[in-house]
Amino acid sequence: MAELVLDEISKRYDDGTVAVDRLTLEIADGEMMIFVGPSGCGKTTALRMIAGLEEISEGELRIDGEVINDRPPKDRDMAMVFQNYALYPHMTVRQNMSFGLQQAKVDKAEIEQRVKRAAETLGLREHLDRKPGHLSGGQRQRVAMGRAIVRNPKAFLMDEPLSNLDAKLRAEMRTELSRLQSELGTTTVYVTHDQIEAMTLGDRVAVLRKGVLQQVATPREIYDGPANLFVAGFMGSPAINLMSSSIEGEKLHLPMAEIPLDDRMREALSNIDRGRSVVVGLRPEHLFDAALVDGASTRGVCFRTQVDVLEAMGAEYYAYSTLDDARTNGELATGDDEPEEAAIRPRHAQQLIARLSVDSKVCEHEPIELWFDPARLHLFEAESGERLTDPVK
Question: For residue 45, what is the domain's CATH number?
């Protein structure tokens, strides 16, 4: 196990492109750190710099206090698990898992013991003499992990290892990975673009955008207190509702209602001029069918809207509606114009998503009265996108 320190490391290519810009992180011994972000954000490049597969242009990479910038990959004592498994098709599971140890001239009895122990842990004991072509995708990924485990490395580096699996297998392997990392206690850096993996697997999550670290915190802290509009829009499924709003006097003007400023909002907006625009975020699960909320008419905020599309998800409904306020025309600008980042941009400001209980009598193309607690609102500065309010609790 090891402590990893990334001290303002950057990756700059010959054409001037900056893939990673002054990334600073301290990854504790035994911690599972998740790098998450859209395609092209620099997360895989950062992982490859840690592995020694990419040269570090600037900054220092330290492991247990020792600078390893110029140390070749084979001398870093890190095991990498790839997206495509990278197994030898002509070798059995046993041979694949033991190959690296054989190359390192480890004693044969020690190799057998390590392979057997890893196979037991991963449920591969009955498959040791089979070849990868006769295994399922999940089993092949377990073999790739087993090959890393038997090395007893200081750190695991995982580059989207579950992306080739179907949804059911991904869910199963997430649980397996979490259990495995907890048992082994090995420092792990895990790259993914899947926010569900980020939220469920990591001790902490580092959100990157265009090579720049946006926020690093526990999954809960990031969800409840996103540092800016980018993090708020990227983390969460369905995505957070973002609405252009204004402060007029002692009221916050939302597209669907006017809300008196409470102490939390007043403090957050103390340096914002009245009449200025702010962006308000509201998670879909914080919108409720007013008919199911006791005392909805005397507390919180109620408003009526028309349900345009209703998605039945089994345990809940996703209700999509349109807000009529003219101030919501157009899209909220966040500076993300690349097609690959379309999913994390705030949607058209007129659209609202509510995540409703199956007990709701909501119907498609019919009106519904929704309710929310103003204490659940996230406020962001419109121009910079920076968070204004304290985390929602």
Answer: 3.40.50.300
